[in-house]
């Protein structure tokens, strides 16, 4: 999503806490609430177990 004519980019993310898991995302600009919710849902979605 554009904000101020520019699209913010996600630079990197790091897990800062394990119980409960907490992830900090570093970006080039402000992320809209809807996009933050999208990222949260993707991170919370179940994943297949590693073989």
UniProtKB/TrEMBL annotation:
Gene3D superfamilies: 3.30.300.20. It comes from human gut metagenome. The keyword Kinase applies. This is Bifunctional cytidylate kinase/GTP-binding protein. Keywords: Kinase, Transferase. InterPro entries: KH_dom-like, KH_dom-like_a/b. GO terms for molecular function: kinase activity. Residues 3-45 form the GTPase Der C-terminal KH-domain-like domain.
